[in-house]
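Reopening this one. Same input as before:
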Amino acid sequence: MLWVKAFHIISVISWMAALFYLPRLFVYHSMSEDEISRERFKIMERKLLRGIANPAMIATYTFGIWMSWLGWEYYSTQVWYWCKIALVVILTGYHHACIAYLKQLRDDRCTKSHKFFRVFNELPVFLLIGIVILVVVKPF
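Same output, byte for byte:
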């Protein structure tokens, strides 16, 4: 169980790092004015999504489900656990919103400003805070 938990935590850290950086790239991408910069950001965004964000999300889910299965008798009765799962589902929705914005930026049809992406970039922080508090403090 401890190995599974360790790999779950490593996966979560990697996923969150990608979710913090990808929208930051969107900020810079939406501010870029020349074609060379826009093409560079498209490459960076694609590589971050495919090389880190997607694999880290899959690993997070894999190890999380594995850990839940190992301790199902306990987890299934805990309110904090189900609240955490709800936040993870929202975080997954955020991940997919990032994919949608990446595709819009890739196709040069995104209408969102760098100011929008600056605010959008902060949303996973609140989800992470909630998830960590639920897992560590177990308030319910």
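So the earlier flakiness isn't reproducible anymore. For the record, The helical segments are 2-31, 35-70, 72-75, 79-106, 114-120, 123-137.
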